[in-house]
Amino acid sequence: MPPPKQMEKLAADAARRRAPSAAGPDAPLPAEYWESVLKDPRAGATLAQARQRRLSEIKGHVLRISCRRCERTVEIQTADAVRLYGANAVWKDVAQRLLDNTCQQRTGRHEEDGCWPAFETP
Q: Which spans does this entry mark as compositional bias, Basic and acidic residues (predicted)?
């Protein structure tokens, strides 16, 4: 059994190791963290900005749009969309046209007609 002085020293060392670090939940995050977050390619554009991109700016191979109303999903290859609608066509307009061409939710009232697009990140 260690002497009492050594036991006190060991207890103090253990308490120091368990002490909360300087970076607690309310502490500000380091600058390196924010730099890495902002350099992430996913931080470059919001979903609203992605909808406004032209087809020629979209790097994805497949474009996907789904309807919030009927839960139907339409996919088209980017190359086919460019061929059909042109490279300068806006993704939001193309997606709405793709859904409207095969929409089955026709009520006759303009406010309720058609599909409600849910844009997925291309």
A: 1-16
